[in-house]
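User: structure tokens for this one?
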Amino acid sequence: MNETDMKEKKFISAVVYLNNDAPVVNRFLDVITSVLSQNFTGYELIFVDDASTDDSVAKIKDYYAAHSESVQMASVIRLNHYQGQESAMNAGRDFAIGDFVFEFDDMLIDYDPNLIIEVYRKSLTGFDIVSVGCENARSISSKLFYGVYNGVSKSGGKLTSETFRVLSRRAINQVKSIDRYIPYRKAIYMNCGLETTTLNYRSPNPSLRKQTLKSRHERSSLAIDSLIYFTNAMGKLAGIMCFVFAIVAIAVSADIVYETIALTHPVEGWRSTMGFLSVGFFGIFLILSIIIRYLSVLINVSFKQSRYLIADVDKITTK
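Assistant:
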């Protein structure tokens, strides 16, 4: 039996998020091309360039020019402006044609390369989505978000921070059947009704892993949208706030009655009255802000016409 006969016959797509990753491009390409070429007869690499300002794309082209005899299909999807990781990876996933699709949320390889093929083999045991997470590089804010999310999630699965994942074609078709904009891939994967699981590893340099995370603003916005869209967290928060303000209103009203009966100068109760009004209006505006946030997300989900804007697609290799 020759080497080709021992390889998997499934065609594999690897979608890679690219945003100013020049320092780790060559290392990533060495690892991913080695793993895929050793284990699969056919594969493609799809790099989604989210408006990089460094020479990441140039390094990728130089790499393929120097290894033209040993590489297979590769493409670079250029977004016409910075659109964030979620939209970028949605574009790459929709472009992929593989029987199985790897999604690499960044190009940092701080795990055993064998984990890539291990994840694929795990998917063959009955899981349509297999994710990989770094268990020692989770920030406090990340743990807090996932703790809240999993506590109020409408699905039975538990989300955690992830580095990369593999999806079966059935999973991708299931996601594509949802004909509307999805703001958070991991959540929709968990809610698509198919079997999922997660493998964990420990990074030798967790601080470096944390540096690859999306911007704080992007993560905060995504976290809020996800809590609204996939959980009833905001509804519960509004209910709790209404209950708290109701208790405050009762307490302040009782204080006003007491001052009116017990004191000779009830006008002195203006402090309690003003305190009540201040707290009450604060509660009203807080609830209104939650409602407005709900409406903005619903409008975005219902009417957003384009999930991403592509400037061009550059075929690096066509083998």
